[in-house]
Amino acid sequence: MKTVLRIKKPSIWLLCFLLMAVWACRPHAPDPDPVHPPGSPPKPSTQMPYEVFGRHYVPVDSAEGFTERGIASWYGNPFHGRATSSGETYNMHAKTAAHPTLPMGTFLLVQNLENGREVIVRVNDRGPFAKDRVIDLSHRAARKIDMIQNGTALVQITYLDPETPDIREKLNTAHPDYFTGDFTLQVGAYSDRSRAEALRGKLQELGKDVFITSASIGGQPVYRVRVGRFSSLEAAEQVKRLLVTNGYENVFTVSADK
User: Fewest C-beta in 10 Å: which of 30, 91, 160, 181?
Assistant: First the structure.
């Protein structure tokens, strides 16, 4: 008498489990880099996430609608004449400010809630990095709202849109030297000179004057790729719009080195 070995058919659940196990073991292609999607222009260094004193900061792409309340501080003489994060030379006598995440060139109304005084500033640097501070004002801006002696003040900061006519009029009054002067457009910044040279080659194809400036930040070299020199902010903004339409969305205006 023959013995017949009967093999049970595997259940549908067992088959599903095996398929899932095989799929999980497959090598998967890495997800696209959210910071630099394929084919997109590189972000300027001031728009890249960074870490200071163990705390992570992620710059925002737009300041539209931004408002914040907190403690303001100020910085002055020890930093006067040094390079800011935007590449400008810090001038303690100008009405500027450092903010950890807002885009460079952002205009802000800063109101001292302790005495009601106000000042309009332009963001051109990163900071402050003390956990209880929201903005670092230049010496002149801090003096304008009477916070030099105390060193800090409780403030309300609000974004100002320079495209709004009444706001632009206020900015012309508060920053008459900002709309006329010596400007250039920064398109990228790299620690590797060859990458800066590659970007310059692409920009020159647009028929624009492109140059590279070098600086040292934290002991590390930085090569900034810049386009043109302009005698007014309006002229700079016209070329900026052209660059944006050609895919360079992260270009921003800075004061040109004299």
Answer: 30
